[in-house]
Amino acid sequence: MTNPEEIKNTQAADSSEDITMDQLFAEQDAMQEKLNKREIVNVSVVQISQDNVLVDTGDKKEGLIPLSDFEGKAVPAVGSQITAVLVRKGSDERHSILSHKKALETLGWDVCKTAFENKERVKGVITECVKGGYKVEVNGVQGFMPLSLSEIHPAYKHYLPKGAKIKAVIAEFSKEKQKLIISRKQVLQEDESVRRTQVLSEVKPGEVLRVVVSKVGKDCLYLRYHGIEGIVTLDNVAWKDAETILANYRRGQRIKAKLLSVNEEKGTMNFGVKQLFLNPADLLKKRFGYMTTVKGVITKITPEGVEVELGKNKTQGFIAENELGLDFAGKEGDNVQAVVIGIDTAKFTVNLSVRRFDQVQNRKVVAQYLKQAPRPTLGQLLQDSFETSEEESVPFSFSLRYSGVIWILKYFCFY
Predict the structure, then answer these.
(1) Which domain, by its residues, includes 41?
(2) Measured between alpha carbons, how far is 163 from 134 in angstroms, rounded to an integer?
(3) Cα–Cα distance between 67 and 162 in angstroms, integer?
(4) Based on the structure, what is the number of domains in the chain?
């Protein structure tokens, strides 16, 4: 006896099988309709032969996709799904010919159009180096990248090898004209701008950085820090003999430099090299204090004054004409004594004065004389004058008193 539950399950299974077969036939008919309209379809790989990939198209015979469509890519495995488009319809005797490459290209045009309109980046692979640029495959579409758009700086030869993967933007797009122009330069510029902004935000004026000499100019030194151009003006190359020191630098030389300022808007940096060393003027101020006495040798006499060498280090000194004194008669090679009256911070020389040295010496002589014979006070001199006048007549006393006061005033005024 048949179990009613078993009959019910059998009927449900038959009904499910009928629905599955109906769906299968409907899917096959839909695929055939899409293939005939040259629309893109997804097909299953059923076999890999020596020259072709056999795929299930829902027809009596499998469709063929040439293996050349997968050049440079992995061949799909049996059972996997791939996209394809009909190239030539088959018959009972021959297979239909499909193309995976053309399917990708068709889809690629739509993807490229969206990327172009939204100014999005795309990934590409260089397939060939040709005259004037590169052939680049982007989403299955063959595009062209001119040499001028391949590097951030002007390029006059090929630097990228075949098979290189790049990031780029679509500069020109026209599906109707089958035109796709790729620009890697724009991507490099954008990335460089972001990187420069980051680098410039991380450094602060006053820091000592390791840099590379990129160029030696006539009146400046060009440096490069992490690809960012910097400059050292002539007045910041060295404290003295800047032109001579500038000529000794060489391109590619690695040096240290002090960051003076940063212009984030222009992406430039100003450096200084002399700031790494002590200012010679400050050293001279420490060695030669104001109004200290020094000895030197006259090296040159000019209308403006006298040049002098001081000490064993032969520090340069200068005596201006108005600081020589009235009776100065020195000549080249003579020794001279003078006092320091200042430092020339531009020429790094010690300004000297013989005239003031003589004044100092005269004051010392007068002071020494006064120590030996103490001079009388004004009260003592007046008292002596009045006592003398009382013993003589009035006219004589007045005359003596008057002359004594005049002599006393002259005495004190002289000293």
Answers:
(1) 22-103
(2) 11
(3) 21
(4) 5
Domain end residue (candidates: 103, 130, 148):
103
Is 221 in the same domain as 145? no
CB atoms within 10 A of CB 19: 10
The residues facing 54 across adjacent strands are 47, 64
Confidence of residue 15 (pLDDT cuts 50, 70, 90): very low
How far out from the chain centre does Cα 222 lie? 10
In a domain, 217, yes or no: yes
**Nearest-angstrom CA–CA distance, 264 and 261:** 10
Among residues 316, 335, 338, the alpha carbon closest in space to that of 325 is found at 338
The verdict on residue 49 lying in a domain is yes
Digit-coded pLDDT (tens) for 154-191: 888 999 999 999 999 999 999 889 999 999 999 999 99
Residue 133, domain CATH: 2.40.50.140
Stated pTM of the model: 0.53
pLDDT digits (tens, 9 = 90+) for 106-120: 888 989 999 999 999
Q: Tell me which DSSP letter residue 174 carries.
A: E
Q: Are residues 45 and 68 in the same domain?
A: yes
**25: CB partners within 8 A, 6+ apart:** none
Based on the fold, state whether residues 212 and 241 are members of the same structural domain: yes
Domain annotation covers residue 194: no
Token reading at 333? 């090679």
Q: Which residues pair with 208 in a beta bridge?
A: 258
Evaluate whether 122 touches 168 at the Cβ level (below 8 Å): yes
What lies within 8 Å, CB to CB, of 225 at 6+ separation is 199, 203, 209, 210, 211, 212, 269
Mean pLDDT of the 294-316 span: 89
Residue 73 is given by DSSP the state: S
CA angle centred on 62, ends 70 and 51, rounded to 5°: 35
- SS3 per residue for 113-162: HHHHHHCCEEEEEEEEEECCEEEEEECCEEEEEEHHHCCCCCCCCCCCCC
Cβ neighbour number for residue 69 with a 10 Å cutoff? 19
Q: Which of 251, 276, 301 is at the close of a domain?
A: 276
Rounded distance, CA 130 to CA 147, Å? 10
Would you call 196 helix, strand, or coil by DSSP?
A: helix
pLDDT in tens, 312-367: 888 899 999 888 877 888 888 889 899 999 988 888 899 999 888 888 888 887 77
CB distance 253 to 261 below 8 Å: no
Give domain status of residue 196, yes or no. no
User: Which residues lie across from 316 on neighbouring strands?
Assistant: 309
